[in-house]
Amino acid sequence: MFRDMAFYIFGTQLDTFVQYFIFELIILVVIGLILGFLTKKIWPVIVVIVGLNVIDVGILAQFNVSQGEGTFFGQLMLLLVAKFFPTFYEILLTVLLLRVDWMRKIFKLV
Questions:
Q1: CA distance 89 to 99
Q2: pTM greater than the 0.70 cutoff
């Protein structure tokens, strides 16, 4: 999902590090911030970020299996482990930004 989005935007595949730790980080933090501003709660933000990452892993695992690269379960577990740290940083950055005092005052967050 995010790999295809990067390909459509930039016209080429991004390096894995740039894909996970820069491109997806920016996109999911922005989505998380918007959701946090709208719901004024943290738990929906965490659920959406984890959910989008799991959906992305499922799509990538299915694509890799269709190309003949192992089994679906093996690819799913491999990609879940690979996306653990980027997901953690996406959640951490979003929560920290939502906890900044001036953002809490401007958007009247709980």
A1: 15
A2: yes
